[in-house]
Amino acid sequence: MKHLLLSTVLILGSVGLATAQQKKAPASPAAEATATIDGQAVAIKYNSPFVKGRKIFGELVPFGKVWRAGANAATSLHTETGLIIGTLAVPKGDYTLYVIPDEKEWTLVVNKQTGQWGTVYSEANDLGRTKMKVKAASALVESFKITLTDKALGMEWENTTATVAIRAK
Asked: What are the tens digits of pLDDT across the range 19-32?
């Protein structure tokens, strides 16, 4: 009887622990930025990592190298209308966004490959690239954030804000 009681307690404890672990917030939660441009939906889906006391740009995310613009799966762009992002014409459809951060400016990369893990990048699949303006954030941005309006696409994290103009084609 003692063994049955002990086994029951251990099983219930394990189930409780597993349930508590499942409810733990993800390290880089899913996020989405949406806008209506020329009457059509545009959406960017990404995972939002946190600073957590780390030095981000120039260390965790090296300057001059392609970065997935978020965490986990690759950052996706879905547009129901053709766009002009900076100097780049983007037909309606589905794409992956990457950036190449640098101290003074970033390069936004629009890639035709979709559905891949964020670190899987093939330059051969690039639709094209355009420059983003960079400035210092007014305060620490703990969680990576993408913003989207009918006029601009922005990315903010740590002490940096990068933006590029966007409009209907």
From this structure: 445 567 778 999 99
Question: Rounded to two decimals, what is the model's pTM?
Answer: 0.84
Taking CA atoms, 96 is separated from 9, 128, 129, 136, 147, in Å, by: 48, 11, 12, 26, 16
CB 60 within 8 A of CB 71: no
What is the Cα–Cα distance from 51 to 48, expressed in whole angstroms? 10
Q: What angle do CA 67, 158, 98 make, to 5 degrees?
A: 20
pLDDT tens, 54-83? 999 999 999 999 999 999 999 999 999 999
Give the number of other Cβ atoms within 10 Å of residue 117's Cβ.
10
Nearest CA to 75 out of 97, 49, 90 is that of 97
Per-residue pLDDT tens over the stretch 125-165: 999 999 999 999 999 999 999 999 999 999 999 999 999 99
CB neighbour class for 61 (10 Å; exposed up to 12, middle 13-18, buried from 19): buried
DSSP code, position 136:
E
Q: How far apart are the first and last CA of the chain?
A: 75
3-state secondary structure of 66: coil
